Amino acid sequence: VIKHKRCMRWMIDTCKERSTSFGNCAWLRKTVRVECLGEGKDKEEACEYLEELGVDVDDDARGEEEDVHEGRPVMSIGESMRTQMCWGKADLIGHDKCMRWMTSTCTERSSGRGICKQFRALVKGECLGLGKHPEHKKEACKYAAAMGMTVDTEDE
After folding, report:
1. pLDDT tens, 29-60?
2. CA–CA dist 106, 109 (Å, integer)
3. Is the pTM of this model over 0.85?
4. Which end of the chain, N or C, is surrounded by fewer C-beta atoms within 10 Å?
């Protein structure tokens, strides 16, 4: 990651601006710190990035904390990308693999971008029969229950 200057610049700038609402800035700080302390050819660049991030190379604690958003740890960059990919599905409720992923991940972590909040609202709406896919009402209610949501539905 150190070799990709444009990516590093974007990640550092983003973490400096809003460290708790982006992917995993703690991961970035830790990764750069490890490179700076190592013997690799990217050591010098890593140390410069570390200084930009405001992390003392001798301070173990700063690179170890997790970013938190709305009381939950923020997803890693990979988790965030997968969450965004699933969120973009036209019939998300009908996509079992994404629904299992989103239900599990959004219960434990925050996207830092409001996707999990929107996801919970979508699941609740579909469970109440207010969504675009009434054929998935039963599945939506199952996922709502798995996330610990209470949805008052009238049994017919």
Report:
1. 777 888 888 877 888 888 888 888 877 766 55
2. 5
3. no
4. C
